[in-house]
Amino acid sequence: ENLKTCRSAFRFFGGSDVAALELDDDILKFFHSKIGGKDLVVEDVEEAYETATKMVIPRKCKWVLMWSARQSLEGTRRQAGITENYAVWYSYSRLPKVGVQFQEFIRGLGYQALNPGMKGYLTSPLAAFSGMGEHGRMSSPTITPKYGVTNRAMWAMITDLPLLPTPPIDFGAYKFCKTC
User: Fold this and answer.
1) Are 15 and 152 in contact (CB under 8 A)?
2) pLDDT of residue 149
3) What is the side-by-side order of every strand in the sheet holding 34-35?
4) Is 50 among the domain residues?
5) Could you give the number of structural domains in the chain?
6) What is the DSSP letter of 165?
7) Would you state the pLDDT for residue 154?
8) 3-class secondary structure for 61-114?
9) What is the model's pTM?
10) Range of the domain at 12
11) Could you give the angle at the alpha carbon of 115 between the alpha carbons of 169 and 57, nearest 5°?
12) Deepest of 24, 42, 78, 171, by most Cβ within 10 A of its Cβ?
């Protein structure tokens, strides 16, 4: 029920697909140990906090919530070059808006939602492990069954809201990429 609520909220705020992972020691390896020059650490505390040298995740924050922002297919098809890539820009520009709105939504429910920022984690492995899609051979985008690589940005948020993890999927994209 919690994941369905989060999915509905993200879509209302402008996100597309939503998935979840359990945050264990293996998944934590996909988060950078330093973010903005600060150590990322997990401690036995009630609330997340940040000092001049570290960002602290409470141990009770055991879930990673993944969401994406759909990139315009028509905009992508018609971009002429790097300066005309508004479809990519618009997809990425939604991160702060959707993320902050969702953080406030979760806080209103009485839980924490921590946003380590786009440069705080490895997107493709988290997206693949959460079942949002598969990693392909075309650099960094995760390939999704619904939107291909136009589901541009996959973002992660750490939370203490209990979530049912979504399993990884295999829809044949990686196998196809081996021969393409």
Assistant:
1) no
2) 76
3) 34-35, 38-43, 54-58, 49-50
4) no
5) 1
6) P
7) 77
8) CCEEEEEEECCCHHHHHCCCCHHHCHHHHHHHHHHHHHHHHHHHHHHHCCCCEE
9) 0.86
10) 2-22+62-179
11) 95
12) 42
